Amino acid sequence: MIRGNKRKMLLLAALTGVFTVSLLSFSPIKQQDRNLKVLSKNISDDKLDQIMDEFKADLGVKCNYCHAPQQPKSSDANPKKDICRTMMRMTDEMNLKYVSLIPHADTVKLQLVNCNTCHRGQAIPSVK
Ligand code: HEC
Ligand code: HEC
To answer: Who's near 84: CB < 8 A, 6+ residues apart?
Structure first.
């Protein structure tokens, strides 16, 4: 019982690190520049940049693969952006609903699924 709760707390802490930012850290919120539907609306600019850089590396693409060129980044004109949101929700759900239920010995670190688990530097994951 205690073990299970501890694991859940560790998982939540890890997820918080991946997709949101601690409520304690402060940064100016430029709401007009943002259109966040999955990430925390209070996420810092630095953390947002870090996540975007990860997307770029994990999928082997440039920013405009998901963001329409000559548009503000908040624009949803590029349909890949919404596909990406679906992927973000899917990844969160895999971790919360499934990966966290795998029993881990105290010595084994909980390993979360992330974009690179499947993508490995490609926009369309290779099945080979
Ligand atoms: C794989 C797709 C993808 C790539 C590549 C990507 N982004 Fe994003 N970006 C998104 C998605 C999806 C959101 C909105 C997330 C949400 O709704 O919570 C977003 C949001 C943003 C935002 C906040 C505006 C908004 O829509 O709320 C900025 C700024 C941004 N990205 C900049 C960048 C930059 C700069 C790069 C390149 C270094 C980049 N992004 C690469 C998918 C991507
Ligand atoms: C469980 C494996 C898996 C994970 C985890 C995963 N993806 Fe995907 N992703 C796929 C598959 C498979 C496709 C191709 C689906 C198709 O046939 O259109 C895909 C497609 C995409 C596409 C559309 C590519 C295109 O050109 O149509 C984007 C963007 C994307 N993923 C972003 C992400 C991001 C960002 C993450 C992490 C938040 C992520 N994915 C996590 C499996 C995964």
So the answer is: 55, 66
The pLDDT tens digits for 41-78 are 999 999 999 999 999 999 999 999 999 999 999 999 99
Tokens encoding 122: 């490609």
Determine the residue of 19, 32, 66 to mutate for testing ligand 1's pocket, defined as the one with the most ligand atoms within 8 A of the Cβ atom: 66
For the segment 76-104, what is each residue's pLDDT rounded down to a tens digit?
A: 999 999 999 999 999 999 999 999 899 88
Task: Identify which of 13, 16, 11, 6 has the alpha carbon closest to the alpha carbon of residue 110.
Answer: 11
Tokens representing 16 are 């918080």
Q: Which residues approach ligand 2 with their CB closer than 6 A?
A: 55, 59, 66, 80, 83-84, 87-88, 91, 113, 115, 117-119, 123-125
User: In whole angstroms, what is the distance from residue 12 CA to residue 20 CA?
Assistant: 11
